[in-house]
């Protein structure tokens, strides 16, 4: 994946073009933009404008065009726009959305605004929305579309085509390539493609030409549904209840989102990042949330790595400290042993910090959440989060080592000031190393992209190599300098 591959977009409407249309209230210009560019690209550019500009642009379009573009906007932008809909026009726009899309918006709206939207909704659609809202977020029912056109098995192909046209024109059912066949009691029987219906004899019965189809249940986990979907050569999959009655369908778009979230969750688990930030766009996430999502694992890693320190310290102490007399040579050896045991502990935490930054940025680049113009903002955001994390971890390290050396009685000995110097030196080194590790971890994928290389090809290997060097060099340099100054 190169820089050109990631950021090339031959059909991209500029914000200046949108602003010009908005400033002049040019209805024809706005509608020409809709005819020229894909709705997804228009929505992407629209997101960078102010809320009032977004509203004006949508008002210049037909309700159906505005609704289509609205459906491609990020969820937080959709919510802010929905909050500002004070006229019938806004309510009508929301009614143009598919039921599953409208549910996603309602889920994030304040209760008073959601109630207003539901009050404007027809009784039939309101029942559908309430049904969708009743499913848990991890269930298939929460992502399925119920705006579908099913075909009774007793229909002829001519009747089926007429029903598809009628459903689409009257109820705005989702137009797809596959259509599901049901019995008189709405039980799922099979599937047909639009081509099979169109090219068959008009008098041929649907029950004679449909094929069996795989399905998922409304209460099934989304991850399981994604697995079933990947095994089928179809762009949609039917969703049934416990009686195998057809309830809705999931599309490839729905499944791509599920797979994306699942992969992100796995990556974040590897790096010890809280999965609460999975659904957030990197550029829209404040720095303190980035720090919050990483702090727990980094702190726990530092604390529990004390076990490693104890083992190394004990092993080296048993091997090398054989003199019973507390002469200066044995003290120097004892201090060296204590220092050597700390290095791998600090290295673990610093490496993990670099990995967290690297994975977050690499993922955001892969999902096109970061543009070239955002690179400076990204690095500054990571540095800010890293500084806060470095302060917290340095304090944790001081507390951890103080407790450790108090337990070994080294802080009660005549050389306690040198052990205090060791605590302060390693904590300062940890502070600096954490910041540099985060900086390098976030810069590496950006530099690889600029060099037209795949950021996943060498990031982690190079990251580990450089961070090992940084941590050892800084820790030895600072701690040795403090100890020498006290000698």
TrEMBL record:
Organism superkingdom: Bacteria
Localisation per UniProt entry: Cell membrane; Membrane
SMART domains: CBS (SM00116), MgtE_N (SM00924)
Protein topology in the membrane: Multi-pass membrane protein
Any single Pfam family the record assigns to this protein: MgtE_N
Gene Ontology CC: plasma membrane
GO terms, molecular function: magnesium ion transmembrane transporter activity; metal ion binding
Domain CBS: 144-207, 209-267
Transmembrane segments: 295-316, 328-346, 383-407, 419-449, 461-483
UniProtKB keywords: CBS domain, Cell membrane, Magnesium, Membrane, Metal-binding, Transmembrane, Transmembrane helix, Transport
InterPro entries, sorted: CBS_dom, CBS_dom_sf, Mg_transptr_MgtE_intracell_dom, MgtE_N_sf, MgtE_transporter, SLC41_membr_dom, SLC41_membr_dom_sf
General function of this protein: Acts as a magnesium transporter.
Subunit structure as annotated in this protein's UniProt entry: Homodimer.
NCBIfam families the UniProt entry points to: mgtE
Family, as annotated: Belongs to the SLC41A transporter family.
Protein name: Magnesium transporter MgtE
Organism: Mycoplasmopsis agalactiae 14628
Record lineage: Bacteria, Bacillati, Mycoplasmatota, Mycoplasmoidales, Metamycoplasmataceae
Name of the gene: mgtE
């Amino acid at each position: 994946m190169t820089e050109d591959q990631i950021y090339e977009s031959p059909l991209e409407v500029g914000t200046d073009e949108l602003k010009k249309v908005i400033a002049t209230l040019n209805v024809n210009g706005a509608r020409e933009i809709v005819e020229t560019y894909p709705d997804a690209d228009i929505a992407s550019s629209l997101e960078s404008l102010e809320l009032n500009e977004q509203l004006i642009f949508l008002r210049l379009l037909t309700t159906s065009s505005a609704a289509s573009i609205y459906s491609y906007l990020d969820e937080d932008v959709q919510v802010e726009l929905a909050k500002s809909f004070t006229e019938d026009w806004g309510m009508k726009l929301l009614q143009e959305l598919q039921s599953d899309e409208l549910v996603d918006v309602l889920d994030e709206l304040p209760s008073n605004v959601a109630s207003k939207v539901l009050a404007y909704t027809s009784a039939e659609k309101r029942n559908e929305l309430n049904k969708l809202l009743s499913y848990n977020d991890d269930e298939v029912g929460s992502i399925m579309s119920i705006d579908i056109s099913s075909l009774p098995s007793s229909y002829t192909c001519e009747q089926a085509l007429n029903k598809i046209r009628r459903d689409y024109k009257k109820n705005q059912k989702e137009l797809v390539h596959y259509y599901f066949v049901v019995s008189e009691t709405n039980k799922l029987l099979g599937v047909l493609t639009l081509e099979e219906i169109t090219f068959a004899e008009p008098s041929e019965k649907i029950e004679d030409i449909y094929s069996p189809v795989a399905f998922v249940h409304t209460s099934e986990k989304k991850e399981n549904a994604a697995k079933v979907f990947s095994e089928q050569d179809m762009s949609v999959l039917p969703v049934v209840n416990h009686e195998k009655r057809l309830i809705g369908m999931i599309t490839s778009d729905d499944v791509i989102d599920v797979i994306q979230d699942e992969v992100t969750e796995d990556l974040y688990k590897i790096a010890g990042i809280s999965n609460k930030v999975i659904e957030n766009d990197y550029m829209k996430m404040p720095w303190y949330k980035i720090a919050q999502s990483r702090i727990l694992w980094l702190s726990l890693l530092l604390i529990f790595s004390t076990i490693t320190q104890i083992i190394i310290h004990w092993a080296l102490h048993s091997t090398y400290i054989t003199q019973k007399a507390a002469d200066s040579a044995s003290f120097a050896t004892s201090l060296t042993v204590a220092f050597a045991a700390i290095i791998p502990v600090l290295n673990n935490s610093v490496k993990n910090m670099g990995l967290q930054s690297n994975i977050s940025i690499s993922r955001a680049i892969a999902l096109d959440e970061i543009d070239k113009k955002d690179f400076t903002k990204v690095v500054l955001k990571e540095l800010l989060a890293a500084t806060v994390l470095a302060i917290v971890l340095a304090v944790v390290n001081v507390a951890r080592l103080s407790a450790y050396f108090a337990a070994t009685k080294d802080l009660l000995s005549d050389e306690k000031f040198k052990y205090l110097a060791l605590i302060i030196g390693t904590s300062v080194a940890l502070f600096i190393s954490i910041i540099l590790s985060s900086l390098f971890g976030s810069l590496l994928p950006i530099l690889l992209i600029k060099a037209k290389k795949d950021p996943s090809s060498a990031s982690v290997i190079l990251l580990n190599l450089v961070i090992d060097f940084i941590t050892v060099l800084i820790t030895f340099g600072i701690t040795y300098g403090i100890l020498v100054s006290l000698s």
